[in-house]
Design goal:
By secondary structure, this protein is α+β, with helices and mostly antiparallel strands. It is built from five helices and four strands. The chain has two domains: 5-45, Orthogonal Bundle (Arc Repressor Mutant, subunit A), CATH 1.10.10; 59-138, Alpha-Beta Plaits, CATH 3.30.70. The two termini are 15 Å apart.
């Protein structure tokens, strides 16, 4: 799909605030409302715009602690991976989950009320599937935290 400068400006605008009306977006990118609405639909139909969501403030919801869990395993078969991936995906505390290359097999990002709450998550995690090593680090400060992709 060809993406031009108007599409890029539109994607940037939607990423920073998807509550804007089509007219507000049109004014921002320098087009009228109808072609802007068509572009939004085309970008959504192509899967470039996946969905619109509300970003919640973790601190306002008493989720003060962000933790990063690194996981190593000696199991790399498909059955183990499916079991582990499905189990971790069902954990509401997990907000990001990645399979990595290199020394660490998996990286999990958690959002919790406090560091003490990690113990309950740890127990759930190790009950899912056999793991070789589970290590946790907590974020002391979020220096940059964005959902905006560099378009």
């Amino acid at each position: 799909m060809d993406i031009d400068d108007y599409d890029i400006r539109l994607l940037r605008a939607v990423q920073s605030d998807s509550d804007r009306t089509v007219q507000q977006l049109a004014d921002l990118i320098g087009l009228s409302a109808t072609p802007t609405a068509r572009r939004l639909k085309r970008l959504a139909d192509a899967g470039i715009i996946r969905k619109h969501v509300a970003l919640l403030d973790p601190e306002a919801l008493d989720l003060q602690a962000t933790l990063f869990i690194t996981v190593r395993t000696s199991h790399h078969d498909a059955e183990w991976l499916t079991r582990f991936a499905e189990g971790v995906k069902r954990m509401p505390e997990v907000i990001e989950f990645y399979r990595l290359s290199g020394d660490i097999d998996y990286l999990i990002k958690l959002c919790l009320p406090d560091v003490k709450a990690y113990d309950a998550v740890y127990k759930k995690l190790i009950a899912i599937a056999p793991l070789s090593d589970v290590s946790a680090s907590f974020a002391m400060e979020a220096i940059k935290n964005t959902t905006e992709l560099p378009v």
